[in-house]
Amino acid sequence: MTAISRVAGSIVDARPWIRAWEAVAERDGLRRLLLVLPTLVVLLVLFVAPLTAILRLSLLDPAPTARHYLEVVTNPTYLHVLGITFETAALVTLLCLALGYPLAYVMATVPGRLAGVLIILVIVPFWISVLVRTYAWMVMLGRGGLVNTLLLRLGVVEEPLRLMHNFVGVLVGMTHVLLPFAVLPMYSVMKNIDRDLLRAAENLGANRWQSFRRVFFPLSLLGVVSAAALVFVSALGFFITPALLGGPRDVLLSMLIERQVNDLTNWGFGSALAVVLLGLTLLVLIVFRRFLGTAAWGSVVEGR
Amino acid sequence: MTDGVSAGHLELVGLSRHFGDTLAVDRVSLTILAGEFVTLLGPSGSGKTTTLMMIAGFVRPSAGEIHLAGRPITRTPPYRRNVGMVFQNYALFPHMTVFNNVAFSLEMRGIRKREIAGRVGEALDLVKLAGYEGRLPRQLSGGQQQRVALARALVFNPPVLLMDEPLGALDKKLREHMQLELKRLQAALGLTVLYVTHDQEEALVLSDRIAVMNHGRIEQFGRPPELYETPANDFVAAFIGESNFFEATLVDRLDARWVAETPKKLRFVVPDRDGLRLGQHVRLSLRPEKVAVEHGTGSDYAGVVEETIYIGGVTKLMVRLEDSDETVTLVRLNSTGLPAIRRGDQVRLGWDPADVKLLASRSEETR
To answer: What is the CATH classification number for the domain harbouring B271?
Structure first.
């Protein structure tokens, strides 16, 4: 700006120009655009560009072709993997909601200081690498791991259980990693439910359970849906945890992609799988979004 | 609960509530007769809402008892108290239609669907909202939400209706309209109402009796004219309406009257009362509308108009008295035919000695 004004200043006074520029900036929201510009550039370079490359690879490797996509949708193996991926994501989502809802409820209803402690306990795992947390589970769930040692010592089982390198391991690990994603949105919605509504319900004759079922629970559903969307979509693309804790038969879509690219250097097919995963994820998001939009209570809670 | 006369009889006996070290409600005792409209009036933090919450059962009293229709309810859970309540921000269930909001209490009582429909219809008729059954609360205006809240609180025929600043969120015009409507409903249905507000005008309009609260205590409980004309202490005098307050000393006695003098030598004649003695320090209150004013000079109460404030129907005048340098505030009707009084005019003031009220000089001393 100063350089321009100096140049301009040698000809005419630059101030009217600056003012004119500011007027334009004001009017067109250009200022706001300037604020998001750095992020926009980063996203374009690091996200949109690679994505475009993948899209091109899936259609142009080695020559223009739809063969990769046909392979995905016709080969039963890949459809099976797709099925397992969705099934796993759905189960993990259910587990996260079932475990997370009571926790979020307690966090939202206990007195201030205890709530703060609970929030920290939920958030701390966020700061620890997924890899570390997954290895920790391997220590816990292995044949000679903590869980099996304990069960053997207590005489509950006679020989170690297979808790890892199978579907159980995948579920335990993914549920643990994704639990905060379920708890936090539910907590934030529950926290904002007006306590007077519960009092009103009680005043009108509802006991604790009835006021929960008729008032608190329906109003908390917005958080449940957000939590479900977040966990489900994250679970669809999960890689590290299922790769380390799963067995040879627990192949998820992300692992398939990795295998195609790293082991088989089949960039075209790997890219097609990635695009399919992305497309399905977007589809899931759209479905959740519609679910949120059509539910009458959605906008009510937003409007509060 | 079918005996309409005694059903609404509500009695608070020595009700107290501590929050940590603070005493939010301090030994409140109050008897509300069936069919009576009683208001708890006080500034924020005076304990009026906490008192209401204890009656509704949301706050457990630290001490004291609550009796409804002669039955102790102090330890009854809120959902079995059968007390109607209108919340400050209505607390309508946002995910339920108007019908379901109003029907809620009846469903909780296990009443059959057909009867529910009839009673919800009646309740909505009562508040003039028939035809709005299918709406959601957010599709209604503030005034309409207020009516739904009222219908919801009345539909199960509670013996007592509690209202926590229910008109606070409405604009002035609508608020005044709702006040009259509430009064009409209360009279027509013979409702027992305990109302909470910080708005003294609203309390005067609505109430049969008003309990003025301050620092968790009831300063005075009485009919509106009693509170206004014979306030128990300076807090009540200041909170209900405006007043001129003077610190004075009893300097002389004439027959059955006393002469009180302010430090600036303004003298008042005040009626006798038990326990007054010469040299005693007193606090006096003189309502602005009790002061007469005319142009002129040469009286004990002559002075100069320092300020005039036009408020539509009346003008408020502040007059600085010449001899004593005290300022007296008065209001004067803006009637046609009366000479206008302007700032700087020389005026004479006058009042009936009976209108000068002796107050307990500190509200604490009334205890």
So the answer is: 2.40.50.140
Q: B214 and B75: one domain? A: yes
Dump pLDDT digits (tens) for B334-360: 888 888 889 999 999 999 888 888 886
SS3 B135: coil
| CA distance linking residue B64 with residue B23, whole number of Å | 14
Is B3 within a domain? no
CB contact under 8 A, A206 and B79: yes
Q: Which domains does chain A have, with CATH numbers?
A: 3-15+76-302 (1.10.3720.10)
- CA gap B253, B266 in Å, rounded: 16
Cα of B151 vs its chain's centroid, Å? 23
Residue B233 per-residue DSSP state: B
- CA A55 – CA A233 distance, rounded (Å): 20
What value, to the nearest 5°, has the Cα angle with vertex B57 and ends B56 and B58?
A: 100
- Range scoring the smallest mean pLDDT among A134-148, B14-28, B215-229: A134-148
Under 8 Å between Cβ of B205 and B240 = no
Chain A hits for B57, CB-CB cut-off 8 Å, are 202-203
Contacts of B81 in chain A (CB under 8 A): 203
Query: Based on the structure, what is the number of domains in chain B?
Result: 3
Q: Say yes or no for a CB contact (<8 Å) between A202 and B79.
A: yes
